[in-house]
Design brief:
Blueprint: H1 2-21, E1 36-40, E2 45-48, E3 53-55, E4 58-62, E5 69-73, E6 77-82, H2 85-91, H3 113-139
Antiparallel strand pairs: 1-2, 1-6, 3-4, 4-5
């Protein structure tokens, strides 16, 4: 048992001495991504992770930052260009922003919102049923 521990200690010491002899190489900083800007006729701009490829009558590219594959008609594209490093730095978000209450959502409240919305649907169904009940008498055949 002692011999095994001694042998394991020697192996570990040798491994450390071999690792210490290797020089540590500094890690190179990550290169800035190459982004492409697609200017549309409607004065909108899209950012692409890769060079847009023309396939038939559409440009195909991966949208920045999600990587979603997008196709845009050739007729709606004004120009495609490589972005400068300054433009890339401006396009990359540095901090996450929190979204507050959105106007169409309304404020967040406690309780069950689903129950209130179902009550509104019940009233709508009643109104439709009442309207249809009157039309049944009008469209019924006289017999």
């Amino acid at each position: 048992m002692v011999k095994r521990l001694f042998a394991a200690g020697i192996l570990i010491a040798c491994a450390f001495s071999l690792g210490a002899q290797e020089k540590l190489q500094p890690v190179a900083p990550k290169p800035a991504p190459t982004l492409y800007q697609i200017d549309l006729v409607s004065s909108e701009k899209l950012i692409s992770l890769d060079l847009p490829v023309l396939k038939g009558t559409v440009y195909l590219f991966h949208q920045y930052p999600t990587g979603t594959l997008i196709s845009v008609r050739k007729s709606t594209v004004k120009q495609v260009g490589k972005m400068t490093p300054a433009a890339i730095a401006a396009a990359i978000p540095t901090t996450a922003r929190t979204v507050g209450n959105v106007a169409m959502q309304g404020p967040r409240q406690g309780g069950s919102a689903g129950m209130r919305s179902n009550m509104g649907m019940g009233r709508a169904r009643d109104a439709v049923s009442a309207a249809n009940a009157g039309s049944d008498r009008r469209t019924a055949s006289p017999e």
